[in-house]
Amino acid sequence: MSAIAPTVRSTSPRAAVLRAEARLFRREPGTLFWILGFPPLLLVILGSIPSFRKADAGLGGLRIIDLYVPILVLVALIVTGLQTMPPIITGYRERGILRRMSATPVKPSALLTAQMGLNGSAAIVSALVCLAFGRIAFDVQLPKQAAGYALALLLAAAAAFALGALVSALAPTAKIATAIGSAVFFPSMFCAGVWLPVQSMPHVLRQIVELTPFGAAARALGQAAAGDWPSWSHLGVLAAWAVLLSAAAAKWFRWE
């Protein structure tokens, strides 16, 4: 953060923060791997299982690998929302960086905007890589309802980052933020269908999972990938979670 101060004099505060945070973001190879590398790698591993590449009549003629591409698109959002962003923001608060920034032309909100923009961009790139890998390596069709897919992806990103903002608001330290994020991470992965696609879950369990943000997102992305407009109920669940989580984060968030 010390690199921000001299830059602010010659350019806008928000641009200075964005450049500084982008440099720090690029210096974290572990973070970049989990956002950009892990979902495509998991896709390659799953696609290498022969039974996952065979059409299943119970899935409407789809293959299991066809179902996993939208799921792995969500994995990057879950990682960024719960594992990457909260420890950074709480770490800045814990070290007093947000408090010191509030007395300069660089407002703390600029840092939050930069963090969400950088992590969001990385997650979108990861989604595009998964779609490209699926198409090239395993002949997975690109989303047939592109507009519906994009809408569902944007709502899923809003819900994921709102959840991350809430974790950042509730956690007083970076270690606690990591602990809370990890506790929510695995249930979120389950609801997204990483261990069992939502479509393949028992009926009652599927109905419950579809009320969660990532369960609804998995279903909406899957529907759009198949060529249907995502169900308004799934989109509504995503929008409701995004609004509720954002409101809760705004209420409890503290700069210091």
Automatic annotation (TrEMBL):
Statement: the UniProt record of this protein carries the keyword rRNA-binding: no
Transmembrane portions of the chain: 32-52, 64-89, 109-134, 146-170, 176-196, 232-253
Location of this chain's protein in the cell: Cell membrane; Membrane
GO MF annotations, alphabetized: ABC-type transporter activity
ABC transmembrane type-2 domain location: 30-256
Pfam families named in the record: ABC2_membrane
Membrane topology, from the record: Multi-pass membrane protein
Keywords attached to this entry: Antibiotic resistance, Cell membrane, Membrane, Transmembrane, Transmembrane helix, Transport
Biological processes, Gene Ontology terms: response to antibiotic
A cellular component annotation (GO) from this entry: ATP-binding cassette (ABC) transporter complex
Superkingdom classification of source: Bacteria
Family (UniProt): Belongs to the ABC-2 integral membrane protein family.
Record protein name field: Transport permease protein
Species of the source: Kribbella jiaozuonensis
Lineage, top ranks: Bacteria, Bacillati, Actinomycetota, Actinomycetes, Propionibacteriales
